[in-house]
Amino acid sequence: MELCLYQGTFNPIHNAHLRVAEFVAGTCDVDEILFIPAFIPPHKKCNNLDAMHRFNMVKLAVMHNNKFKVSDIEFRLGGKSYTYRTVLELCKQYQPKNKIKFIIGTDAFRQIENWYETDKLKEYLHFLVFTREKDFNINELSGLKNKNYDFELMPLEFEDISSTEIRRLAAENKDLSKYVPKEVEEYIKKNELYKD
After folding, report:
1. pTM for the full model?
2. Measured on CA atoms in the order 142, 100, 119, 17, is the torsion positive or negative?
């Protein structure tokens, strides 16, 4: 199986996330894109209730694409959601023939050397790197290529949608239909998320 992982806080998942996944599904050799909402992100504050809501919203957002699946693996593993632990567990489960593809933004990829067990992690992953800035220069990543990180920069134009901005709009009861799927907007309103 050709597996691709899309890991993130997804607080909430939005249309730019889905656009990236659809681009990968349409242009890369993948059988399945596995969305993995982080249970306890190592560098962000979230509680268990937030985690369940984030997981439910991802399920709603991906249900119309049969290549998209959602995994609760980081909920089952418990504790902080380190990518290396997740990848080891998924390798046991899926036994992929090749390196697992891993969707990541340039902002996060720049920090990859600070990730838990990064030297071991890079042996398992082929990173699909998406631009998260308007004026990004590929030369910024040349140092990572020299350190044997296996990656390619994906040719998809940056779309500036921010989860922070969506949370702010939701807190003010504003229309979210431009930013999130209809089912996600309904879920946010029904559960009165991001009100405080």
Report:
1. 0.93
2. positive
Model confidence at 144, pLDDT cuts 50, 70, 90, reads very high
List of residues 6+ apart from 130 with CB closer than 8 A: 20, 103, 104, 105, 106, 154, 156, 158
Identify the band that residue 169 occupies on the pLDDT scale cut at 50, 70 and 90: very high
Domains with residue ranges and CATH for the chain? 3-190 (3.40.50.620)
For residue 87, what are the contacts with CB-CB under 8 A and spacing of at least 6?
A: 5, 100, 121, 124, 125
Q: What are the beta bridge partners of residue 125?
A: 100
